[in-house]
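# nightly structure sweep
# worker-07 picked up a monomer target from the shared queue
# config: single-sequence mode, recycle default, output format = structure tokens
# input follows
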Amino acid sequence: MYGADLHVIVENTTPAVDAVQLLTGCTLGNHRLRLCDYGKHVYIFVYSEGEGLRLSLLPEAVPESAQFLALEQVIQAERATMLQTARYHALLNERIAALCAVPDDRLFSMQRTSAQWPEEPLTSALVTCDNCGEMVIRTHRVRYDGRQLCRSCADAPNDRLDGAGITIN
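# output follows
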């Protein structure tokens, strides 16, 4: 499935995205990889106009471990000891090894699907944000209260914006 016509839409931002880039040659940089972070292990390979193959991780393929989930919560709460962190990483490695051992047909559901690659203007024109003055790709600016802002300024709390009657609701 490798070729210049192949495009991939991934619905997560896990290390699996690195594998997709390596195996397909589709990257963010060459605009043949699209990230839609829905937190799901779903991969849509768009291989011709309107046609694609959708892979979705099957729930039964993921090994269940109450200990793994409990340790993950402790780590996320920033209360983990070094021993707990080491145990978590060991369990994570076991989980990855178990996933790698699952046969393809028991790992993903596969279905042909209609898939449209979203068109977007391709530009590298850089302009400055009217608020912070940083460079931003022209097509990524947001018009807000008569000013052209980068998305981080447009999404920022009010105290980041420097005036001119701009408020974020």
